[in-house]
Amino acid sequence: MPAPFDLSGRRALVTGASQGIGADVVHGLAAAGADVVLTGRHRAPLEALGADVEAQHGVRTAVVVADLSSATETEQLAEEALVPFGGLDVLVGNAGISHPQTVVDVDADTWDAVMAVNLRAPALLGSRVGRAMAAAGGGSIVMVSSVAGSLALAEHYSYCASKAALIMATRVLALELGPAGVRANTVSPTVVMTEMGQRVWGEAAKAAPLLSRIPLGHFAVPQDVANAVVFLASDAAAMVNGQDLRLDGGFSAA
Description:
By secondary structure, this protein is an alpha/beta fold.
């Protein structure tokens, strides 16, 4: 009997793969045995990561460059990512952006940019890749949302809205694709100390009020998200569908 987190023979697509959470997710999936299609806006770091992953884990990788702020490129990615390994069994919608603004300062261009990457792109990929998974007999979709999708954060107007909508969009994927064997779930971490997390929350004075509300007393790291993604992609989560797994150290318990 294979190990519960064994992904040998599975084929995965990870968006926002070149750094931060995405890079750790790629390594996590590969360590579990999955072949991985890496996507992002820049080829060089993706190819470097792919070479490292192949050397460390002995799996296959492929690179498809795409700018998820473009609906056209997102649609093309959904088609092109199916080609390298003859299909996909796992989709991880990880790419995301944040442009902190108060509600009174928000501008239309920033709002639209955040929605395009954080909501429209994963929703389109979930639709198109999910359709291919359903036709092939099943799969797992994991979208990276945020605790900000459930609990409001000041100066994160567009970000909170996009992540809340992503949770609901993923539940609709779970509802409609579940009968075809495709599971869809979100993971919602608190602040993750990536480069973006450091930029927004790296100042101790700004971080202190939020940290004081996390019972474990610290923010997440990318590996925390990668571990949850591997679980949800695996057969260990065979009955987990339409759920939001919060990785918040107890932030939402109070």
